[in-house]
Amino acid sequence: MKNTNSLVSAFTSALLVATFASSACAKPDSVMFTKKTPVIDGIANDAAWKEGDWHEMTSLMWGTRPESTDFSGRYKLRWNKDALYLLAEIQDDHLSDTYANPLERYWDDDCLEIFIDADASGGDHLNNYNAFAYHLALDNQVVDIGPNEAGEAVPQLYNDHVENKWQRDISAPHKIHWEAVVHVFDDNYQHGKDNLPVTLQEGMTLGFMLAYCDADGGDREHFLGSHEITPVNGDKNLGYKNASVFGKIVLAK
Q1: CA dist 79 to 35, 85, 159, 199, 252, Å?
Q2: For residues 166, 132, 245 and 34, what is the CA-based torsion angle, rounded to 10 degrees?
């Protein structure tokens, strides 16, 4: 049985490596530099957002594909030396925050999920800090799984990593604008220690993916994201544990 499990693990790892190698051939998305730091208030009227293309969130990662009136999403990114800046425009006909405890079934509430890999190296990040999968809740709490001081991989708050706020668009009641500033940490990060975020520079390549959990009734129904994922044993919900399925972004001027 041990040998069988080892073969299955090796096969799964090989599939993920192949998936990452395939995505690595794709041209990274270019992220515009901004001199004017956007105000994180969910209003989305900052000069930083005036230019540049929107990126769609249409890749199904889990569940069924929703009607556009139920969910649709798109986003923009900017950067400066201090952080990445995100604007997401979300169409969701029912916002749900069922679980008051931010560490309880946070994936079964509506949430925006930001995946970051500081060096775009890919690989496992469920049991270490090789990469992050930040779940931004409707109450603006930020959750990911990572090793605590005892080395146990458990859900934890990372509110100091991502500042975020959303607001409804007054002209379209089912549309929200969600802004975030993401401080990027590399795999030297240690829980409970004094950690400094990476200083971002022109030409850097990062692993990146964005997704939205749509959970109208206390359970996740739809999970759509920014990048296509090659399924492993039929499963596309892989980003929370393996950064090999992320896309890539390159920081440009």
Answers
A1: 9, 6, 19, 11, 9
A2: 50
What is the C-alpha end-to-end distance of the chain, expressed in Å?
Answer: 53
pLDDT digits (tens, 9 = 90+) for 24-79: 456 789 999 999 999 999 999 999 999 888 999 999 998 778 777 778 899 999 99
Angle at 23 between CA 203 and CA 245, to 5 degrees: 100
In whole angstroms, give the CA distance from residue 174 to residue 225.
19
- Tell the residue number behind the tokens 């992220």, with chain if given: 31
Q: Which of 129, 121, 137, 88 is nearest to 246 (CA)?
A: 121
Query: What are the tens digits of pLDDT across the range 167-198?
Result: 999 888 789 999 999 999 999 999 989 999 99
User: What gap in Å lies between CA 115 and CA 59, rounded to an integer?
Assistant: 15
Of 136, 132, 144, the closest CA to residue 179 belongs to 136
CATH of domain 2-251: 2.60.40.1190
User: Can you spell out the DSSP letters for 143-188?
Assistant: EEEEE-TTS-EEEEE-TTTEEEEEEEETTEEEEEEEEEEE----TT
Tell which residue, 135, 142, 145, has the closest CA to residue 215. 135
Only one residue has tokens 């798109």, namely 74
